[in-house]
Amino acid sequence: MMNIYEIICDYLTKNKTGVLATVIKRTGSAPRDVGAKMFVGEDGKAFGTVGGGLLEAGARKEALAIMGKNMIKTFSVNMNADVVNEKEMLCGGNVIILLEPVTMQHHEVYQQIEIIQKNKQRGLVVTGFGKDILSKTSFDKEGNITGNIPDSHIIDRVKALLYEKRPVMNEGYFFAKALQLNVPANRLEPRFYDLKKCSTLSSPTMR
Predict the structure, then answer these.
(1) pLDDT band at 32, cuts 50/70/90?
(2) Pair 121, 13: CB distance under 8 Å
(3) No. of H helices and E strands in the chain?
(4) Span 51-98, pLDDT tens digits
(5) Where along the chain do its domains lie?
(6) Across residues 167-178, what is the average pLDDT?
(7) CA 67/CA 65 separation, integer angstroms
(8) Residues in contact with 105: Cβ distance below 8 Å, sequence separation at least 6, in sequence order
């Protein structure tokens, strides 16, 4: 089964870029758990899922809005009961989604994550983000580091989290297992959305 990082590497090899959307926080009965990802290519194709429906269409719309601008953005979606009923959605809850540019800067990291996944090894992906700041690092089970070299306290944190089952958000860093990103094959087929029919569920919140 092809995974999102394999698709990302394929895009970068062809000198194409995109935006990676990741659920970094969830409360209530939101449709997808923390760590769910969707890649939106510069050609408008979307792979993976962050929840489907208007939530996913909204994430794609926001991704296209920052495409090619090398911007990092988080936005929140509040799917309260009124919104869920009005939009005929199946789930409520709130989510925060991180949008990060996918460029050649972190190609080596994406390649390493792809290798970890294909070999079914244990590994951890650490994404650091803030205003105009994005760092990307992968750690394998042997402690080998690819990408941006983090501070020693982050490395210590990685050692403690390597065997955690769930993603962790801590001090502006998002820690996620490298093996959790496979999604059903039908969600890896390129999809397009009619943006005219896509209404934002809540006002995006810049962080």
Answers:
(1) low
(2) no
(3) 5, 10
(4) 877 788 889 999 999 999 999 998 888 765 444 444 444 455 788 899
(5) 4-103, 120-177
(6) 74
(7) 6
(8) none
Other CB atoms within 10 Å distance of the CB of residue 185? 9
Model pLDDT, residue 143: 83
What is the b/e burial string over 63-90, where b = at least 16 CB atoms within 10 angstroms of the residue's CB? Answer: bbebbeeeebbbbebbbeeebbeeeebe
pLDDT of residue 63: 95
Mean pLDDT, the chain, whole residue set: 76
* Angstrom distance (rounded) from CA 89 to CA 60: 18
> SS3 for 14?
coil
CA atoms in the 13 A half-sphere facing the CB of 117: 23
Biggest CA-to-CA distance, the chain: 50
| Residue recorded with tokens 């994430």 | 59
φ, ψ at 48 (rounded to 5°): 85, -170
Q: Where does residue 42 rank: exposed (0-12), middle (13-18), buried (19+ CB within 10 A)? A: middle
- pLDDT confidence band for 118 (50 / 70 / 90): confident
User: Dihedral through CA 38, CA 41, CA 44, CA 49, nearest 10?
Assistant: -10
Is 193 a residue whose pLDDT tops 70?
no
